[in-house]
Amino acid sequence: MSALTAPPTPAFAASPCGGLAAPLAGAEVVMRASGALWLPNARALLAADLHLEKGSAYARRGQMLPPYDTHDTISRLESEIAALDPVIVALLGDTFHDSGAEGRLCADEASRLSAVARGRTLVWIVGNHDVDGPKALPGEVVDTLSLAGLMLGHEPTPGPSPGEIAGHLHPAARVAAPRGTIRRRCFVTDGSRMILPAFGAFAGGLNVRDRAFAGLFVRPPLVGALATNRVRAIGWKRCVGD
User: Fold this and answer.
1) 229 part of a folded domain
2) Pick from 11, 6, 8, 38: which is nearest to 22 by CA?
3) Which of 174, 171, 201 lies closest to 187 in space, CA to CA?
4) Quick count: other Cβ atoms within 10 Å of Cβ 87?
5) Does 38 reside within a domain?
6) Confidence check: pLDDT of 57 > 70
7) Which residue has the higher pLDDT, 14 or 34?
8) By residue range, what is the domain housing residue 111?
9) Mean of all residue pLDDT scores within the chain
10) What is the tally of structural domains in the chain?
11) Which of 13, 115, 173, 193 has its C-alpha lying 20 to 30 A from 216's C-alpha?
12) What is the 8-class DSSP label of residue 35?
């Protein structure tokens, strides 16, 4: 895309919640320190890649991780809902780590997920790990969702895609610091599209300098790195490879 048609560099502004507000393809969005995205005009809360029951999946293969990832991830989602009172909650795919994860939920965690849908619209966007969506939990199961002039999906479409919000890549930024480098999960956006960080406790992250991100942005993007109780704006030149 030429410089004449490229979107302006997004202007990040500090939000009272410790997040960062930014324009995205004409809409206002707020990057939250939890890794969720808030669309204030639509009162919509978005989160990607929860990977619920990843710990139990690894345990079945003999890798004993602490079995608290689902509890922690749902607790953080509940905290965001309590703080924002959204009318829409959209989960952008890979909410479950595998096709059997829903069946491995304990009764309490299944009940807490069901409660997310009470009094609001809950949308499950399917991903490559959960292609069929949940079978027993309430909510709408879709491939993509159009909302507030934006297109929500799981995996970023190749090439520029104005207005797209996706997950899948689990972006993380490694930033040069005076005493070495710091690595954090992050949002990444050029003002035209945005990739969300993984929300799941055990989800991990892929460096934004990885070639998987090549070609997704029409100009060098900006990064919103997750820190304790805030999101930090990071310029692209400060992001380094692993």
Assistant:
1) yes
2) 11
3) 171
4) 12
5) yes
6) no
7) 34
8) 13-240
9) 91
10) 1
11) 13
12) S
